[in-house]
Amino acid sequence: MLKTFKKGGVHPAENKLSANSAITMAELPKIATIPLGQHIGAPATPLVKKGDVVKVGQIVAQSSGFVSANIHSSVSGTVAKVEDTLDSTGFKRPAIIINVEGDDWLEEIDQSKDIKKEISLSAEDIKKSVQNAGIVGLGGATFPTHIKLSPPPGKTAEVLILNGVECEPYLTADHRLMLEKGEEMVIGTKILMKALGVNKAFIGIENNKPDAIKHLSDICKNYEGVEVTPLKVKYPQGGEKQLIKAVINREVPSGTLPIEVGAVVHNVGTAFAVYEAVQKNKPLIERVVTITGKSVKTPSNFMVRIGTPTIQLIEAAGGVPDDTGKMVSGGPMMGKAISSVDVPITKGSSGVLIFNNTEARRREVEPCIRCGKCVSVCPMGLEPYILMTFAEKQMWEETETESAMDCIECGSCMFTCPADRPLLDYIRLGKTTVGKIIRSRNQ
Amino acid sequence: MNRLINISPSPHVAGEYSVKKIMYGVVLALLPALAASVYFFGTGAIIVTLVSIASCVAFEYLIQKFIIKTTPKISDGSAILTGLLLAFNVPSNLPIWIIIIGALISIGVGKMSFGGLGQNPFNPALVGRVFLLISFPVQMTSWPKPLGFLTGYTDAVTGPTALGKLKEGIMNGETVSNIMQDIPSHMEAFYGHMGGSMGEISALALILGFAFMLYRKIITWHIPVILVGTVFAFTGILHFANPEQFAHPVFHILTGGVMLGAIFMATDMVTSPMNPKGMIIFAVGIGVITVLIRSFGAYPEGISFAILIMNAFVPIINKYVKPSRFGEEVKNGQ
Description:
Chain A is an alpha/beta fold. Chain A has helices at about 125-130, 145-150, 175-180, 180-195, 210-220, 240-250, 270-280, 310-315, 355-360, 375, 385-390, 395-400, 410-415, 425-440; strands at about 25, 30-35, 45, 55, 60, 70, 75-85, 90-100, 160-165, 200-205, 225-230, 265, 285-290, 300-305, 325-330, 335, 350-355. Chain A is globular, with a radius of gyration of 21 Å. By secondary structure, chain B is an all-alpha fold. Chain B has 2 domains: about 20-140, no CATH class; about 160-320, no CATH class. Classes of the chains: A alpha/beta, B mainly alpha.
């Protein structure tokens, strides 16, 4: 029997339309818009101003706190301005806008395709290198990677888990990367293991990607301590806590981090970025983005420079379909609807999903028939129906005691609800308000 | 190019379930039992079913339109289901006017007075049935004999149910083995060849419906299996303690409304607990109360009362019986 997590979970239609399309290089944008806040935490502080000439890979904004990350120019050209620009969060936030001229890379970056296997850097130097390269979690959460490489005092990492689950329907960026950059990814894994001082790593992959499981298993034979764990397909297996439960059968206690049970989880895309940073001296300036949807002419996977406008990728995949009703940055379960096709691709953009008019509308909300399906699918063992009611009635104390803050916002409850009730909308409202209450209480 | 696109928070896709699909799924699951009923009781079963469904739907429509003054939503199938279940819980020769009163109580008092679909604490069909049982005890307990498909609505020959004979016999001081000579065999009871409420007779047909609902993931196994198991275990203990006073457990689970109640009445989503732990407590409670009423109470059958009594405990069960949270065991230091 294949491993999986125990509690709850759903199985949305997979719709991996772009699974067989190889990653192609996206064209350079004419104007690159590089937001300063592409990660969880404080936005980076810009180091360039209007008129500055920048090269590919040059640092343009510096980490501004403990939880923050450096940002590098993904293009060469002249800085046009630094101003507030609409990004995929739906807000206008500061960004560096660069007029692209040529493709002039910093000399110290190794642009060759040769695979460099030998890891010469020490653990400390690896951490520094990862931090300098501005690497953040590429699975979508965009938590700065270097922080996860330095466990807090008193905690030790025992095992590294690579997240190659890609449980979101439609998205295939990680899948393609595992197939096409498998060896680099496994070397990246070894680098992460060295930095963490662990000698065991598991790559969790759902068995709807048998080609990736086979490919990486073959590669892992040559790398000691790295092993592929095939997993049964179930959403949200890519959730950090669910993945740890599935792979090593440990439960991260409520309100704590994975390091509590000795685990550190990184996305497979992050492992590839770490390889490039440590072995090739290349900062995080590009990533794989899936452009997909049932009406998209050619669902595709692109290697994209950060800051490329979304519309350019959609055009490359056959243009905006006539029946477009909604566009989502990320997957259908947890992605964010975008309000403009001009928003730039950032470090956290795993894909752009285009829904047609009928798919784009929510169904009519009906009364709760108390079927309990939301309770049975919740991977955190919560009771979404009661959390929604408490949030609706603004009963914040009860919302907190019913563990609203444990919700991972995977959307399984709302996906499965036969009455199409807006469960997660209200739980988010509850979480936001309870979060504020907790912060003010702790002050 | 300018056009408006939708913006909404995630998730952006929805699953296959809908209220309608669930309601009509249960209706489909009830069809084998309906067929068995028509096969054994004839025309009466058809008339009772049609009248019950039509009047439940009509009352729901009228109440929504003229009293609550909202857009009637009878197409969701919930009134059809209540009508069908009410019909299943009455004899197949019940006069039409009594059925209509039952439908009014089920929909009007049992469901709409609490706010309609999803709001009622008690199973509406059982509210109607128990109201009728108390108000019209004679008509509600004149059980037609299973004389076959050609039996007319009014020409039914009536007689007591197996449970009725048992209760009466025990009251008169007879022994179980004596009474049993006059009672359908376990096999006959399994197929449904015996007197009783319209839809409760054929365990086989009801179990078919159960399998269908499990396959379609409309309900989980917890309530039916635990409920029937509890009745079996409890009556088993009584039987082996005193076989001349208490009937065999197989007799108990195949007669009366245990199968219908366990599979279709106690599993009513609105009036049953929200998580498996709660469902188990709920089902054990119904099983115990049913056996207590059957073995020690005044009525020969008690499952309707048992379900309604446990319905009342559902809010408390939901409040205190929580699913185990992720990470909880670790938090408790295990």
